[in-house]
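Fill in residues.
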């Protein structure tokens, strides 16, 4: 008998999904042919990687994860901590390249686990189902001999039954069911969250890859774990978990909209689109309050004329102002 999730589409869940759809439409409308999409994508990639690895105990900070994403080094950190992060970046690239896959196979899932868990597993083999029995807190996942069959059923459901539900629902079901089976000796949390993201990509929900729901899970890990645990306590009923996951995605989209508002500002009844370096400049001014011209072009690694070209539209839009004398003037937020 195949897998069939048990849940109820409550009025609360339906309301959240409807609001999510509205947020998503606003985001899509605001991100049509804009130059700062790469900045949003980088933010999401870094935040997802930091959050998903931190949930599992990785000690690297968000800033350190960002350094690794940019190709930098962290000599003071353990090799394993860095490898976990680099593996997750590689896994995100894998699912980004795999959004067009019509039918996910067991081979695809094993490859994803191999990417995520390579050289960082405490038990079991990467890219292979577990041959051991495991325990997750008070929860005892299925016996190892049952894993291949249960994973086969889940993959069949993913390729067929999931399509009749909103991706908000199907991604949450996939996430929970994978964690419940716990098919690998290690790395299940990271793989499960990556699968949920992959579902949002495959279903065309996050077309730009700019959402970071794992960040919401990380910010309140206790509630995340509690929501997962409640399913078992409710005898497999996923309703509460679906509501929680939808609320997390709702908050994620709210955060993205706020980020977009920071990037796109009103200017002479037109849309002033902030270039990445203009955004960096505004962040620098928030941190330092006022900066001399030379400090600006040094910080942004651009020429004097390049700095002036960045500053001009910001000044005209009333976002930045110059203070002080002609010779010793500085720039600050208006």
């Amino acid at each position: 008998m195949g897998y069939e999730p048990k849940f109820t589409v409550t009025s609360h869940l339906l309301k959240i999904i409807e609001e999510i759809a509205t947020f998503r439409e606003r985001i899509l409308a605001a991100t049509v042919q804009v130059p700062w999409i790469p900045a949003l994508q980088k933010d999401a990639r870094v935040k997802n990687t930091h959050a998903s690895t931190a949930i599992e105990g990785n000690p690297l900070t968000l800033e350190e994860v960002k350094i690794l994403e940019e190709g930098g080094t962290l000599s003071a950190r353990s090799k394993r901590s860095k490898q976990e992060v680099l593996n997750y970046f590689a896994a995100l690239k894998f699912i980004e390249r795999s959004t067009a896959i019509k039918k996910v196979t067991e081979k695809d899932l094993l490859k994803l686990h191999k990417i995520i868990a390579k050289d960082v597993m405490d038990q079991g083999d990467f890219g292979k189902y577990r041959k051991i029995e495991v325990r997750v807190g008070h929860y005892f996942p299925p016996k190892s001999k049952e894993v291949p069959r249960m994973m086969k059923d889940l993959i069949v459901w993913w390729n067929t039954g999931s399509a009749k539900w909103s991706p908000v629902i199907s991604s949450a079901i996939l996430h929970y069911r994978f964690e419940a089976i716990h098919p690998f000796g290690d790395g299940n949390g990271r793989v499960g969250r990556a699968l949920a993201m992959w579902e949002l990509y495959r279903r065309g929900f996050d077309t730009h890859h700019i959402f970071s729901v794992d960040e919401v899970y990380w910010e309140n890990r206790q509630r995340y774990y509690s929501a997962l645990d409640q399913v078992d306590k409710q005898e497999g009923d996923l309703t509460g978990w679906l509501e929680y996951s939808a609320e997390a995605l709702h908050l994620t989209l709210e955060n993205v909209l706020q980020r977009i508002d920071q990037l796109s500002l009103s200017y002479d009844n037109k849309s002033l689109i902030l270039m990445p370096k203009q955004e960096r400049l505004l962040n620098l001014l928030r941190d330092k309050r006022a900066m001399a011209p030379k400090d600006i072009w040094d910080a942004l690694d651009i020429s004097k004329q390049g700095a002036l070209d960045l500053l001009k539209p910001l000044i005209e839009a009333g976002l930045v102002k110059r203070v002080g004398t002609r010779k010793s003037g500085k720039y600050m937020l208006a």
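The longest helix spans residues 239-263.
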